[in-house]
Hints:
Strand order of the largest sheet: 1-2-3-4
Radius of gyration: 20 Å
Number of helices: 1
Order of helices and strands: HEEEEEE
Distance between the termini: 33 Å
Structural class: mainly beta
Oligomer: single chain
Amino acid sequence: MTEPCKPGLSAAETMRTLDQLRKDGKIDLLETVRLSALEGHESMVRFGKLTTVTVAVQGIGQGRTVRRTDSRDVGTLVRLTARPEGEAILLTLQYEASRLDGPGQEDAPPDTGTVGVTTTMLIEPGQPTLAGSCRSDKTTLLIVSIEK
């Protein structure tokens, strides 16, 4: 996506814009996480996998090679605590996702890309709210929605 979203859009208009950009292939939906929370208690979900990657290949003669491998933990972690504030919900949220960036090379492992968002926000139930994270080559938008 090269052009910014228009400022001042409502949450519903922003969601429609993001949905259209996804349909047009301009942005990717990476995952959807649904998590229930009890008032004042931290809820957490973590899912992912431990994967093996090649970190080096060494020739040992006669056309034979030895691979040195390492384990990488990749996946998603979400922690949240919710507390009512009038009609809204005060949400403390930590989101972290790590993925292998590409296949790597025969003699070098793939990079591990990690994005994260840690925030406290006041959310109206039923109104999607955006939180974001940026790194040099990617912007991650986290869309948060609360249902009572």
